[in-house]
Amino acid sequence: MLDFFAIFSKGGIVLWYFQGAGVSESFAGPVNALIRSVILQERTGHSSFTHNALSLKYKLDNEFELVFVVGFQKILTLTYVDKFLDDVHLHFRDRYKNELEHKGDLKFLVNRFEFEDDFLRLLHEAEGESVTKPQKEMRTYYKSQKSQKTVKSMIETKGGDKGKEQTSKKNKNAKKEVLTFTGALREPVLSQQIQVGSMKGDLRITSIFRATKGGFGGMFGMLRGLVGSKTLSQRDMEPVLEKMKDHLIAKNVAADIASQLCDSVAKKLEGKVMGTFTTVASAVKQALQDSLVHILQPKRRVDILRDVLEAKAQRKPFVITFCGVNGVGKSTNLAKISYWLIENGFSVLIAACDTFRAGAVEQLRTHQRRLNSLHPPEQHGGRPAVQLFEKGYGKDAAGIAMEAITYARNQTFDVVLVDTAGRMQDNTPLMTALAKLIDVNTPDLVLFVGEALVGNEAVDQLVKFNQALADHSKSDRPRLIDGIVLTKFDTIDDKVGAAISMTYITGQPIVFVGTGQTYNDLRSLNARAVVNALMKA
Ligand SMILES: Nc1nc2c(ncn2[C@@H]2O[C@H](COP(=O)(O)OP(=O)(O)O)[C@@H](O)[C@H]2O)c(=O)[nH]1
Ligand SMILES: [Mg+2]
C-alpha cells in the first residue's frame, strides 16, 4: 500500500529506502518537494504534506539528524501510518544507535543500513493490525483531477512542467522563485541540502539543477555531483574522497599516503555506472576498504619458523637484523621474538650491536637472564636457550655482528638476532654505518622497527632507511627492509593508520605487532581487524 519509505540524513544522504511493489515513480520528486516546501521553511510543525496525488508523512530525529518519510496515495486512508512511522523510527534508532552516535556525516557513508527485513516485518504487522479502506469514490477521474488541482493551485505553472515555489504564509514578502521540475530527477536521490534554521525569510531553492557554484556547503553540497550522475567522474568524487582522506588522516595514516589511496579509489570508480545514491556511497566505501585490505595483505609470505628450519638444515644460523630510530622498541621486541623462537624450540644468540646508548648491553643481558630462567638449560640439552654476544661499547657494530654470526655458526645456534643502535634517518654517518653492517653481514631478514604512534614521520623514516641501505651497499642488488615490526600497538586505540603507511611505502609485510611490554605481547597482524578499525567512523 505504501509508495515509498525513505530515511535520509539532514545532510542529504539517503541511508535507506523502500519502494512499494509496482511503483515506478522515484521518491526523489515528492521528497524534494517536502524538503523545499516544509523543512527548509521551518514548517515542520505538521507531520504531513501533500504532493500531487501523494500524501507524505514525516518525522524528524533531531538527535541523530535524520528524517523519516513515508509516501502513499492520498486517496487511501491508511490509519496505521502514524504509528508505523513511529515504530520504524524507534526501531531504526534502536538497531543502529551505535553507528548513529558517531559524529559527522561520514558515518552515513561508511555504514550500510540493511534494514529491509525489519522494515518488512514492521509493515506486515502494521498492515495486519489495521483495516485499510480505499475510498472508492475518490478514484473517479473527476475527483482525482480535483485533488491534483489543489496542489496546482499552490504552484504557479510557468511553461511546460515547471512550477513555482509554494509560498510560506508567514513570509508573504519572500521572493518567489521558479522551480525547475524538469522531470529529469528520475533517480531515487535527494537533491537538497537541508539547512534548517538558516533559510528564514528567503525562499531559496536548493534544487541541484539550480544550485550555483559554492552555494551550498556541507555533506550534501559535496555529494551533489554524485547524485545526479549515472557515470562517476573523477571530479564528482573528489569532494567525497576529500572527506575520506581527512578520515584516514584522523586515523593516523600519513597525509601523503591518504592522498595516494584516495586517488587510486577515484581511479577504480571512475566511469562506473551507479544505479542509486546508496550504491555510490557503498561503492566508495567498498573500494577504499578493498584497497586497504589489499595493502595490508602480504605480497610475500614471511614464515620465519620455516626459514629457520631451512637454514638449520644447511647448518647456518638464521640472521635477523633490527633497525629503526631511537626508543621505538627494537631491544624489547627483539627479546619478545627471542622468547617466541625459544618457545618454538630454537636456540638464540643475541648480538649486542647497540654499542652507543648507555645501558643498551645491560638491558639485553637482563632479558637474556629472564628468558633463561623461563626456559632453564635443563629443558634445552643442558645449554642455555639464549646467549648474549657482546663486546661492550664504542666498538664497530658491523664487526661485532660478524663475530657473533661466526660464533653462532660454530656453536650451532639456530638464530642470531642483531640489535642495533637507534638512529635518526637524517643522520648520514649513522645511516652509512647501518648500511655497512647490513651489507657485510647479509642477514637473512632486515626488520624495520617502527612505532604505531608515528604519523607522517613514518614515510620519511622508511624512505630514508631504504635509501641509505641502497646507497651504501656495494652489491648490485642491495638488501633493503624486508619486513616491519609495528610496536606499541596497545597504545593507539583505533588510530591504526601507521600500519597502512608503513606497508604502503615499503610494499613489505608487517611481520610482528608489539602489543605491550611482556614477552607474550607479540602478535601477527590481522588485516581485517585493522581495516575495520580504520573505516570505523
Ligand atoms: N606499550 C608498549 N611499550 C613498548 C612496546 N615495545 C616497546 N615498548 C617500550 O618502549 C620503550 C623503548 O623500548 P626499547 O626496546 O628500549 O627501544 P629501542 O631504543 O628501540 O631499543 C621501553 O620502555 C619499552 O618497554 C610495545 O609494544 N608496547
Ligand atoms: Mg635498544
At a glance:
The chain has helices at 28-39, 81-101, 106-110, 116-129, 141-152, 218-228, 234-250, 255-269, 277-296, 304-313, 330-343, 360-374, 397-410, 428-441, 457-471, 497-506, 527-535; strands at 2-9, 14-19, 48-51, 54-61, 66-73, 76-77, 133-134, 318-323, 348-353, 386-389, 415-420, 445-451, 483-487, 510-514, 522-523.
Secondary structure elements and pairings:
Elements: E1 2-9, E2 14-19, H1 28-39, E3 48-51, E4 54-61, E5 66-73, E6 76-77, H2 81-101, H3 106-110, H4 116-129, E7 133-134, H5 141-152, H6 218-228, H7 234-250, H8 255-269, H9 277-296, H10 304-313, E8 318-323, H11 330-343, E9 348-353, H12 360-374, E10 386-389, H13 397-410, E11 415-420, H14 428-441, E12 445-451, H15 457-471, E13 483-487, H16 497-506, E14 510-514, E15 522-523, H17 527-535
Parallel strand pairs: 8-11, 8-12, 9-10, 9-11, 12-13, 13-14
Antiparallel strand pairs: 1-2, 1-5, 3-4, 4-5, 6-7, 14-15
Residues 324, 326-333, 422, 487-488, 490-491, 514-517, 521 line the site of guanosine-5'-diphosphate.
Provide a descriptive summary of the structure in words.
With 537 residues, the chain is of the alpha/beta class. The chain folds into three domains: 2-132, Beta-Lactamase; 217-296, Four Helix Bundle (Hemerythrin (Met), subunit A), CATH 1.20.120; 304-527, P-loop containing nucleotide triphosphate hydrolases (Rossmann fold). It is built from 17 helices and 15 strands. The protein has an eight-stranded mixed beta sheet with strand order 10-9-11-8-12-13-14-15, with helices on both faces. A five-stranded antiparallel beta sheet has the order 2-1-5-4-3, with helices on both faces. A two-stranded antiparallel ribbon has the order 6-7. Mean pLDDT is 80; it is low at 134-229. Guanosine-5'-diphosphate is lined by residues 324, 326-333, 422, 487-488, 490-491, 514-517, 521. The site of magnesium ion (MG) has 5 residues, from helix 11. Residues 509-522 form the SRP54-type proteins GTP-binding domain. InterPro entries: AAA+_ATPase (IPR003593), Longin-like_dom_sf (IPR011012), P-loop_NTPase (IPR027417), Sig_recog_particle_rcpt_asu_N (IPR007222), Signal_recog_particl_SRP54_hlx (IPR013822), SRP/SRP_N (IPR036225), SRP54_GTPase_dom (IPR000897), SRP54_N_sf (IPR042101). Belongs to the GTP-binding SRP family.
